[in-house]
Structures are given as structure tokens and as C-alpha cells.
From TrEMBL:
SUPFAM superfamilies: AbrB/MazE/MraZ-like (SSF89447). Residues 3-46 form the SpoVT-AbrB domain. The lineage of its organism: Archaea, Methanobacteriati, Methanobacteriota, Stenosarchaea group, Methanomicrobia. Coiled coil: none annotated. SMART domains: SpoVT_AbrB (SM00966). It comes from Methanofollis liminatans DSM 4140. This is Transcriptional regulator, AbrB family. Pfam families: MazE_antitoxin. One of its GO terms (molecular function) is DNA binding. InterPro entries: SpoVT-AbrB_dom, SpoVT-AbrB_sf.
Amino acid sequence: MDIGITRLSSKGQIVIPASMRKDLVEGTHLLIIREGGRFIVKPLDELEPELKEDIIFAERTEKAFKEFKKGTFTRKSDVDFINDLESW
């Protein structure tokens, strides 16, 4: 088990210690789960394909709902919507 200490920046960013990210390539998408006071970080590509798709869908749905609540939601044709889903 590796243990490291990092800090949260004023912008909400954290740095994963170099020794723990040596196997990750720049741009890797990471899944972060918060359970109480514990955070779990896992590369998204290590998940089962179906679970990965569900998580991406849930994230996009949450983002769209927040945009809708703020009044910044945009309308799209069904074709544009499907193309956007497939591009991620």
C-alpha cells in the first residue's frame, strides 16, 4: 500500500503524488467516490464497460440537470444529442 499526503488548493484541486501516478498517462479520467470522510480514486478505464457507461451517463445527466436549474440548458436535435453522447 502506498501512502501520500497532499493538500486541497483554493480552486479545489489536488495533486496525486508522483510515485502514485507513475502508471497514469496525462488525460486519464479518474472516478472519485466520496463515502463519508473517505475518498476513493480509480481510473475510469479500469471499470467494467457497462459500469463505466452508467457512470458517464449519470455524470452527464447531473450536469444537464444543473444547467436546466440555472436556466442555461440548451436544446438539441435528437441526432446532435446522440452524437454528443457517442463522442465521449
